[in-house]
Predict the 3D structure of the following.
Amino acid sequence: MSHHHDTTHLDWDVMAPLLERGAELYRPVYERAAAWVAGQVPVAAVRRVLDIGSGPGVVSCLLAEVFPYAEVVAVDATPGLLDRARARAEHAGLGDRVRTRHAELPDGVSELGDADLVWAGNSLHHVGDQRAALDGFVRLLRPGGTVVLWEGGLAPRHLPRDIGFGKPDLEARIEAAAAEWFAEMRVALPGAKREVEYWRALLADAGLSPSGTRSFLLDIPAPLPGVVREQVLAHFTRQREVLADKLSAEDRATLDRLLDPADPQGLRLRGDSCLLTARTAHTARRG
């Protein structure tokens, strides 16, 4: 999904390595979620899956494993991410069942073809009119089909409240700054409409029967494995870049120390960094 605004534009090609590594780290979350969804639907009857906002295809390939009789279509607006999804599927031996489709939301939804399962992973909030996008998802569903909507959860935490320098509660202020950035991003989207983000009600308003909401925890305690530490570093590097004008000079200086590879209290060397977060999925079925 793409949009254009001086301070809120997301360059998905630049973010591709971060997205791919992040999706791989979150794979345990998606595995548990996919198993939960598979318990709600007749797996053998799922013949076509749309992974909307697929990014580099980590989840698309997982869905192909969980639903072995289905064609899975990885749908994204960034060709570079679809290239990664295609290569991943080929490497996993799933190239015959995982397809890619370039499409923008919401305009391209109507051209995606029908499906038994529509999986929208943190993609709806990049659409100005979320209600209209959900209506589009519903029109794609075959009778008995299911929408899996990933929205909400808990922001990730990586550090103790007091890290030994700077003002305590750094991540709480980063989270507040990120929320402000997110609100600006939403307002800048084409056709943006404000909605009460009660996803169960929005799914019901779209004509579906809500069937469940569940949050999935990712808890990787300190000390972090190297691959997770690299992702945490990338996360804070991006926060430093994107939120610089929303953070105080003191907090920017604290982030600079955390990102300094030579600082003994920086993220590369400190032993107390972790990764703790939760993602929330909402499911609903078409009668």
Observations:
- DSSP finds nine helices and seven strands in the chain.
- Residues 1-7 have pLDDT under 50 and may be disordered.
- The chain has one domain: 12-285.
- Residues 170-188 form the longest helix (19 residues).
